[in-house]
Structure formats: structure tokens, C-alpha cells
Amino acid sequence: MTTRWRERLRATGAAATGRLRRARWSVAQTAVAVGVSWFIAHDLLGHPQPFFAPIAAAVSLSASDILRGQRALQLMSGVALGIVLGSAAEALAGTSAPAFALAALLAMYSALAFGGGPFGQGLMFVNQAAASAILILALHRPGSGTERLVDALIGGGVVVVIAVLLVPADPHRLLGEATEDLFAELRDALCGLRLGGPPSAGDDVDRELAAGQRIHARLAALDQARGTARQAVLVAPRRWKARASVHRAIARSRHLTLQANAVLTLVRVTRAAVDAGEDLPRPLGEAIAELAHACDVLATGGSRDRAVAAATRARDLLDPARHAGPGYRGTAVYAVRACARDLVAAVGT
Fold it and tell me: What is the pTM of this model?
């Protein structure tokens, strides 16, 4: 096996291990919720096949503690809406093929119409409304709609107890993990910058596109972490004391969007300047290395003071007021300084 394949396998294994480590408590909580939901619906209430109670718990909790309470609310509301509309479709058209089409049409349009606010993120609300309406027709027996609604309320209620009352998500941990993941992508993008050589080929463009996609995916994950943190300090009694500090952390994290865009701009304008043969200031490479070092420190949970010091050095290395050489007023210089400024604002030291 070649060295390249060994390194790729090692990286894949490390990534898988990281995912398992982060999700271990979420998965354990989901397993407990599934068992409790089945016990309540089957053993206590006597439902013969309460499949939806454990399914509701598993779907709402899943392997992530992002937006768990919101998913439970979407699920329970979607099931209730689907049952009502499925029953209406059955009354109008029976259980024929057109009735199934009508039920899905009514359920999805209604869910989209009511799908603002906490119901609008993702497709959980729409999908559960459609699935419930279809199951009303497919099962077609007296009481199936009510029993399904009760099962959904049981599964969702167990989720609320676990995710809101007993073990609510730690907002600072969620924000910290999402921030570290973003800084890791920004570090990799900065380390991949090319400051010399022949004009770039298609591979460079592909790398830029891939880096941009990864960074935007991390920004989306950070936005979800912010939403979960807000919900946690709003509804979870155990997290009320952290409300002020969490809101400050959320406010600082907004600068990361600016920093990520500044990094992407830096990648593009630097490649364009190199391809055009422009004069770039000599300290540019050193400043970019300092920025990459700052991102690496924050990606690995290091000292914020060290990261701020590195970003400050990057900014000062390219200060147009201190240097009169060629290139100090170019777009690449301003992009580096913008990255440094936004990093300092996001860290907030």
C-alpha cells in the first residue's frame, strides 16, 4: 500500500473516530428515549404496535444535539396536521390512489403555508405532515389517527424531557465546537495559498471551489449552533444562568462570517494577483502564515491571547501607514488585514 493511501486511510479513520466521539452521548440519549417511548406506549398504555413513539424519539433526538427541541415540536405538530388532513382526504375520496395524492397535496401545501418561525427550518414539519396523512389512508382502521397522534406526543414528550429538562445541550460547547471546525477550514484554506509560480490551472480553481463549499458548510453549522444555544438558554432551566455569556458569545461569533468571507476573498485576489504578475509586498507570505497560525491555535482549542497576538502581527506586517513599498495598498493586503481584524473581533479578548 502506498504512502498516499495510508495517509488517506489514517485521515478517514481519524475523522470517523472524531464523529463517534462527538456523538456518543447524543446516541446514548437517543437509545434511552427510544426504550422509554416504547415502554410508555406499549406497556403502560397498551398500544399493540406503537411503532411511531420510538421512531418519533429517534428522529427528534438523532445523533446530534442541534435543535432537538425544535425537531420534536416540528414532528408533533406535523403529525397532528397530517392526521387532520388525511382524515379529510379519506372523507372526500376514500382510500383510492387519487385520495393518497390529495392527502399528500393538502398536507404539504398546508405545512408550507404554516411553516414559518420554528417550523420553517428543515423539512421535518413538511415531511411528517405528509407521512401522517398518507398513513391515515394506508392503515385505514378506526382509531389509527388518534393512536398515531398519541404515539407522536409520547415520543416527542420524552424528547422534550430529555433535551430540555434533564440534559439540555451545553450552548458554550456547541458554539465552541462549531467555531473550532470553522477555524480548521480557514486554516487549511490559508495554508493552501500559492504566492508564486506559473499561472494557476484548473486544479487551483477546483481547490478554491472545494474550500469555499467546506467553509460555507461550516458557517451553516455555526448558524445552527447559534440557534440551538439561543433555544437552550431560553427554555432549559439548567441553562438560564448562562444566558448573558451565551448571548455575548453569539454576538462575537457573527464576526466569523465576515472573517470567513475575508479569507475566501483573500484566496481569490491573491491567486489573481499572482497570475497577473503583480508586485506583492514581501511580508505578505509571513502575514498569511501568522493568520494561519492564529486559526490553527483556535481550531485546536489553544489560547485566545496567542491567536490574537498572531493576528495582530499579521495586521501590523502589512500596515500601509508603516510601509511605503510597492503593493501595500493592494487588495490582497487589505484582505489580510480584514481577516485579522475580524478574527480579533470574533475572539473578543
Answer: 0.79
